[in-house]
Design goal:
A hairpin with a 2-residue loop joins strand 5 and strand 6. Strands 7-8-9-10-11-12-13-14 form an eight-stranded parallel β-barrel, surrounded by five helices. Strands 2-3-1-4 form a four-stranded antiparallel β-sheet. A two-stranded antiparallel ribbon has the order 5-6. About 45% of the residues are buried. By secondary structure, it is an alpha/beta fold. Bound molecules: phosphoenolpyruvate (PEP) and manganese (II) ion.
């Protein structure tokens, strides 16, 4: 942390700031200029609020250099994290993992039809919501445990791992036998009690970016899970809210390389929620792989026009197969391949 003193600060003011920094465990390096004194405070203090120092007499401004997320930060594991999903599947290595399936589990026929289509095109993980966070309380809310049973059965039948959204603490144990990855949705990115409980499990967690979360807030949410000892966190960019109304959300593809630099955690991209429009999903999925995403999450429905949720952004099976062919060409251009 750098504390720049005002030009008018007295020696007494400077000494008081130094004393406060030392009291809080920092080592202080002083640089006395002709007009201004700058204090460099060195120490691993994630809990210190820089604004506390801005309030002290004689301080001009305070600039934080260290990151507040210690476990999620790149320095914790400079070589990057690979998440083992089981059955030889890893996220975060050379191979890009494709996760696909319907927004919601609606029925056996719908799920099995969609799962067969995504598996035959090359997806490795089946997605499908059993507990649905819907904007309207009157919209389809999901099949609950029956949906989870169908997901597991379809996953096993078509050799796919399974990911599904967990919305509250009471669902963690219920879901454990059925899913390989817990999904935390955008609405729950800052449900800190849920994150802490997921930190106690040893199952991978995909943490979606909050709809208006900064990257720092998102990484601090990952830190909540990791602080409990669960280091298998996959970040997922799913679009943020901006002033643009043409798309459902604005997909921030720059978040992929930014997170890869700031953090060792693997990063996924969800172009379905990221754009909300079927015809925009394919180009944004291609762009996300080119930008370095470790996984892609895509909504695919065997009959999108009949879907109970997110039909307008769900790909038809033939479109998904075409996307997979394209991704198999794009990945080698950046030294990767599709898992
Ligand atoms: C979903 O994946 O279907 C979902 C509800 O996602 P998000 O939390 O990104 O809206
Ligand atoms: Mn959806």
């Amino acid at each position: 942390m750098i504390v720049a003193m005002q030009e008018s600060a007295s020696e007494d003011d400077i000494q008081q700031v130094i004393a406060e920094l030392v009291k809080r465990g920092f080592e202080v390096h002083r640089s006395t200029g002709a007009r201004q004194t700058v204090l460099g405070a060195v120490g691993q203090r994630a809990d210190v609020d820089a604004r506390d120092f801005e309030e002290l007499r004689g301080v001009s401004h305070v600039h934080r250099i260290g990151v507040p997320y210690k476990l999620a930060g790149r320095a914790f594991r400079p070589d990057g994290t690979q998440i083992d999903i089981g059955k030889g599947l890893k996220i975060g290595g050379d191979e890009v993992v494709i996760m696909a399936g319907p927004c919601s589990v609606e029925s056996r026929d719908q799920l099995f039809g969609s799962a067969e289509a995504v598996a035959s095109a090359g997806a490795r993980v089946l997605r499908g919501g059993a507990f649905k966070p819907r904007t309207s309380p009157y919209a389809f809310q999901g099949l609950g445990e029956d949906g989870l049973k169908l997901l597991r059965e379809a996953g096993d039948r078509f050799h796919l791992a399974v990911i599904s959204e967990v919305m509250e603490i009471s669902q963690i144990g219920l879901m454990a036998p059925y899913v390989d990855i817990y999904q935390v949705g955008t609405r729950n990115m800052q449900n800190f009690n849920l994150l802490r409980e997921l930190g106690k499990t040893r199952k991978p967690v995909m943490l979606k970016r909050g709809i208006s979360a900064t990257i720092e807030e998102w990484l601090l949410s990952a830190e909540y899970i990791m602080a409990g000892g669960n280091y298998d966190v996959l970040l997922c960019e799913r679009g943020i809210r901006t002033f643009e109304t043409y798309t459902r959300n604005t997909m921030d593809i720059s978040a992929v390389p930014i997170c890869k630099k700031l953090s060792h955690l693997p990063v996924a991209a969800d172009p379905s929620h990221g754009t909300g429009r079927r015809d925009k999903v394919i180009p944004m999925a291609r762009a996300a792989v080119a930008a370095g995403a470790d996984a892609i999450l895509v909504e695919v429905h065997c009959q999108p026009d009949q879907a109970l949720s997110d039909g307008a952004q769900s790909l038809y099976p033939a479109q998904f197969a075409e996307l997979m062919d394209q991704l198999r060409m794009i990945a080698p251009a950046i030294g990767r391949k599709i898992a």
